[in-house]
Write a structure and sequence with these properties.
Elements (H helix, E strand, L loop, with lengths): L1 H12 L3 E5 L7 E5 L3 H6 L3 H6 L3 E9 L2 E11 L4 E9 L2 H10 L6 E9 L2 E4 L10 E9 L3
Parallel strand pairs: 2-6, 3-8
Antiparallel strand pairs: 1-2, 3-4, 4-5, 6-7, 6-8
């Protein structure tokens, strides 16, 4: 039984989670919660390090037969950038409410976050130490 628990613990450590926030006085926030600062700081950091002033698009792609997982794709067509986050844990009802609530939002922020003492905080890129956040001009969800 201990092996079973250890295997589940290791699998849980690698899970990405979708975090959606509407902070007062700021843009709506779409975040990917990483299991470690190390992973979150490095994943797709070129987007922030070299092209943080560009506008991005976020696409949610539901996964067939997976009610609690989604793929998240971040693109910037001018610079031919694409970041993919596969099998991200999410709450479908919260995502629907977030998108409905922010239907008229002109911009969003997208970023990598982690958690410490039950509080989310933004990660920084490993190369330049920039806060891992991008400005998003379009958010869409594909239907299965």
């Amino acid at each position: 039984m201990r092996k079973f628990v250890a295997i589940n613990f290791i699998e849980m450590e690698n899970v990405l989670q979708l975090v959606l926030k509407n902070p007062e006085g700021k843009l709506p926030f779409i975040g990917i919660l990483f299991p470690s600062d190390y992973l979150g700081a490095r994943e797709n950091q070129r987007m922030v390090n070299e092209f943080k002033n560009s506008l991005y698009k976020v696409e949610f792609r539901p996964i067939k037969n997976e009610a609690t997982k989604i793929d998240v794709i971040v693109t910037q067509y001018v610079h031919n950038l694409k970041g993919e986050y596969k099998n991200v844990q999410m709450n479908a009802e919260k995502l629907k409410k977030f998108l409905d609530f922010n239907y008229n939002a002109k911009y969003f922020n997208f970023g990598h976050i982690s958690v410490k003492h039950n509080n989310h905080y933004p990660l920084k890129t490993s190369h330049k130490g920039d806060i891992w956040v991008l400005r998003v001009e379009e958010v869409k969800i594909n239907m299965i």
